[in-house]
Amino acid sequence: MLGAAREGVNLNWGDGAASVDTMKQVTVAALGLWLGAMGFFAFVVAPAAFSTLDREAAGRFVGAVFPKYYAVGLGVGLVALASVVVRVLGRGVRPLDWVPMGLLVLMLALTLYAGAVVLPAAHAAREAVRAAGADPTAAAGFARLHRLSSVLNVIVMLAGMVTLIMEAVRTR
Fold it and tell me: ∠ at Cα 98 (92, 102), nearest 5°?
C-alpha cells in the first residue's frame, strides 16, 4: 500500500474486514503516545530519580519535568479529541461516540487542573516544607497534594486505556 492515496485502509482479518481511517489512526497514535509518556514517567523516570538522587535533588528534578509532562498531555490530548470530533463530523454520530469524546474531555480537564492548579500548589507546599523544616502541617499539605496529583494521574491513565481500547476495536 506504499504510496496509495486513500482515505482509509482495509485490513482483512479472517472472514471480516476492518476499515481504519486516518483520523482513527491519529486518535490511537495520540492516545498511545500520551499513555506511553505517562507510564514512562511514572514507572521509569520518577523511580530512577528517587533511587539515584538524594530526595531534595530528585524532587527538584521531577518538579522541573512536570510542567512539560502536563504540556505534552494537553497537546496530544487535544490532537486525540480533535481527531475524534473530525471523524464524528465526517461520518455522522453513531451510538457510543459520546464515550470516547467524554473520556477525552475528562482526561484533558484533569490534566489541565493538575498542571495549572495542583502543581503550583504542590510546589508552594514543597517550598513551605523546606522553609519550615520538620513542620508536620507543611509536610501534610504537600502529602495531600501529592496524593491528589497521583489520583488524578491514575484516573487519566485509566480513562485513556478505556478510550484507547474503544478506539482500537471500532471499525470506523
Answer: 140
Each residue's pLDDT tens digit, 145-156: 999 999 999 999
Kind plus residue range of the DSSP H or E element containing 9? strand 8-13
Cβ atoms 100, 167 nearer than 8 A: yes
Evaluate whether residue 110 is within a structural domain.
yes
3-state secondary structure of 137: helix
CA 31 from chain center: how many Å?
Answer: 7
pLDDT digits (tens, 9 = 90+) for 16-69: 433 447 888 999 999 999 999 999 999 999 999 999 999 889 989 999 999 999
Q: What is the tally of structural domains in the chain?
A: 1
**Structural domain harbouring 141:** 22-169
What are the cell numbers at 87? 471523524
Q: What is the pTM of this model?
A: 0.83
**Residue 93 covered by a domain:** yes
Packing angle, helices 22-40 and 55-91, rounded to 10: 170
Query: Does residue 133 sit within a domain?
Result: yes
Question: Is 9 part of any domain?
Answer: no
Question: Are 31 and 160 spatial neighbours (Cβ–Cβ below 8 Å)?
Answer: yes
